[in-house]
Design a protein that fits this description.
By secondary structure, this protein is an alpha+beta fold. It is 35% helix and 21% strand. The structure holds ligand BES and manganese (II) ion (2 copies).
C-alpha cells in the first residue's frame, strides 16, 4: 500500500497534465454547437478508462449525448463498485468575468482553473487515476469495478434513467461511488449523505398581441412584466416561507441528531456573508443557515426577461415576460407532484388580463443515503486515512439527479466522496479545483477500494 501511495505522489504531475487535456474539451451539454465536442469528450473518457486497465470499455449513443461505460470484473466473489461521474460542463458566460479563457486550463497557486475543473471532470478523473495506479503497482484490483460517465448531468440526466433501466444487469453493483460534491472546508474529509431535488419551471406571460407605445396605451392594458413581478412577489410570505398551499406537505423534518451535527459544525454566518459580499443573510425564519440550505425547500427566480433590455431607453408596454423559476426540494417531496401543484397555483393567482404558460424544464428527486452502509463506513475510513483528519457528514443543497435513480432502479446506496469546494466557482466564472484535493482524492479512492474489498 505504501508503494502505491508514493507511486501516486510521484506521478501526480503527469495526472495534472492529462486532466488539463480533458479540460481543454469544451463539453457544454446544453449548447447545440458543442455536440461534436461531446462526442470527442466521451471518446477521451473511454480512452483513459482503457488506459487505466479496464478490459471492456464502450460508448453508448443516446438521443442526446453519449454515455461511457467501462468495467473490470477480474475478482469473482468480491464486491463490485460502480463509479459515476459526468463529463459535461456548464456554459461559460459571462465570459468577460473569466481571468483566463475557460477552456485553456491554467495552474496557479496550487489550483487548476478551467470550466469543469471541479464540476466534474477533475473529481471524476481522480477515480480513473486511482484504478490506473492500482493496476500499475499491483497488477490487479481486490474487487470488481465499473464506470458510468454521462454527458447530460447538467441538463437533468434525461437519457440516463432509461439507460439504467435497460441495463440493470450490466450496472449491477454493491455500491455507487461518486465524487461530484464538496468538502465541508479545505482539507476536511467529508461524506455527503443528502442532496436536494429540483423542479425547474419556465413561466411565460403574454398580454397584448404586440409591444405597444407605453404613452398611447399605458394605463389601458396589463403589462406582463409588471404582472409577472407582482406574481413572483406573492410566492413567499413575510417569514420567507413559500406561499403555495400544500407545498410543504411531504417535507420530512430534520432529525434531532442532524440538528446536533449541524450545531457541532460551528458554521459562521458572519464569515459566509463576508465571503459572498453581502451584509446580511436571509431565508426562512426558524432555521439556521445550514438547515435552510441542506434540509429546507426553496424557490428562486434564476432569470427574468421581457420587453426592452437593450442599452438606453425605449418606451413600450411589452407583449410578454418570462421567468425561470426553480425550486430545490427535500425528502420526500416529489418533483412531478410539485410541478403540478405550483403550475396550477400560478395559473390560479394570475389575473385574467394575461395568458399564462408554464413549462416544466427538468427535475430531480431529493435523496438521503444510509450512513450505516458498509460502503459509507469504508469511505469514512479511507478519507480519514488520506486526509489525516476526522470525517464530517453533511448534506448538500445542490442536486445530482441520478443518485435517486440508482437507489430506485439498482437498489444500491451511493457514497458521495466529494472533493470540491463550494467556493471553487462551479457554474460560475473562474471555476477551479484544488490540486491538493485532487491528490488526496486519488489516495482516498485507492484506500476505499482496498477497504471495501475486505
Ligand atoms: N455537482 C453538482 C451538484 C452540486 C452542486 C454538488 C453544488 C455540490 C455543490 C451538479 O453537477 C449540478 O450542478 N447539479 C445540478 C442538477 C440540475 C441541472 C438537474 C444542480 O444542482 O443545479
Ligand atoms: Mn456535478
Ligand atoms: Mn454542475
Amino acid at each position: 500500500m505504501e508503494n502505491l501511495l508514493s507511486f501516486v505522489k510521484n506521478n501526480y504531475e503527469v495526472y495534472v497534465n492529462e486532466l488539463a487535456d480533458y479540460l481543454r474539451i469544451p463539453s457544454i451539454s446544453t449548447l447545440a454547437e458543442n455536440k461534436k465536442d461531446m462526442q470527442l469528450c466521451a471518446k477521451f473518457t473511454a480512452e483513459k478508462l482503457k488506459k487505466a486497465g479496464l478490459n471492456r470499455v464502450e460508448i453508448f449513443q443516446t438521443e442526446g449525448h453519449p454515455i461511457v461505460y467501462g468495467e473490470w470484473l477480474g475478482a469473482p466473489g468480491k464486491p463490485t463498485i460502480l463509479v459515476y461521474g459526468h463529463y459535461d460542463v456548464q456554459p461559460v458566460d459571462p465570459i468577460d468575468l473569466w481571468d483566463i479563457p475557460p477552456f485553456e486550463p491554467t495552474v496557479k497557486d496550487g489550483k487548476i482553473y478551467a470550466r469543469g475543473a471541479t464540476d466534474d471532470k477533475g473529481q471524476l478523473y481522480v477515480h480513473i487515476k486511482s484504478v490506473e495506479a492500482y493496476f500499475k503497482q499491483k497488477g490487479s484490483l481486490p474487487l470488481n469495478i465499473k464506470f458510468l460517465i454521462e454527458g447530460e448531468e447538467e441538463i437533468g440526466s434525461k437519457n440516463l434513467e432509461p439507460f439504467i433501466n435497460n441495463h440493470k444487469e450490466l450496472l449491477k453493483c454493491d455500491t455507487v461511488l461518486i465524487s461530484d460534491t464538496s468538502l465541508y472546508a479545505p482539507g476536511v474529509p467529508t461524506i455527503t449523505y443528502g442532496l436536494r431535488g429540483l423542479c425547474f419551471l419556465e413561466v411565460e406571460m403574454t398580454g397584448p398581441n404586440r409591444d405597444l407605445h407605453s404613452g398611447s396605451y399605458g394605463g389601458s392594458v396589463a403589462n406582463p412584466v409588471n404582472v409577472l413581478a407582482d406574481l413572483i412577489s406573492k410566492l413567499h410570505d413575510k417569514n420567507g416561507k413559500i406561499n403555495i398551499p400544500g407545498f410543504y406537505n411531504d417535507v420530512v423534518k430534520l432529525m434531532p441528531a442532524e440538528r446536533e451535527n449541524i450545531k457541532k459544525l460551528k458554521f459562521s454566518d458572519k464569515n459566509y456573508a463576508k465571503e459572498l459580499g453581502v451584509s446580511e443573510l436571509t431565508g426562512e425564519k426558524g432555521f439556521s443557515t445550514l438547515e435552510r440550505i441542506w434540509a429546507r425547500p426553496t424557490l428562486d427566480v434564476n432569470g427574468i426577461f421581457g420587453g426592452f433590455t437593450g442599452k438606453g431607453a425605449k418606451t413600450i408596454i411589452p407583449s410578454s415576460a418570462t421567468a425561470k423559476v426553480s425550486m430545490r426540494l427535500v425528502p420526500n417531496q416529489d418533483p412531478k407532484k410539485i410541478s403540478k401543484l405550483v403550475t396550477s397555483h400560478i395559473k390560479k393567482i394570475a389575473p385574467k388580463s394575461v395568458k399564462v404558460k408554464v413549462t416544466d424544464l427538468h427535475g430531480a428527486y431529493p435523496v438521503l443515503t444510509p450512513l450505516n452502509h458498509k460502503a459509507t463506513i469504508s469511505a469514512k475510513i479511507a478519507m480519514e486515512k488520506a486526509f489525516g483528519k476526522k470525517i464530517v457528514f453533511m448534506r448538500e443543497g445542490g442536486s445530482i439527479p441520478v443518485v435517486a435513480t440508482f437507489a430506485k432502479l439498482l437498489k444500491v446506496p451511493s457514497v458521495m466522496m466529494g472533493l470540491g469546494l463550494n467556493s471553487e466557482n462551479l457554474h460560475s466564472p473562474n471555476e477551479h479545483f484544488s490540486l491538493k484535493h485532487f491528490q488526496l482524492g486519488i489516495i482516498s479512492s485507492i484506500l476505499f477500494i482496498d477497504e471495501f474489498s475486505k
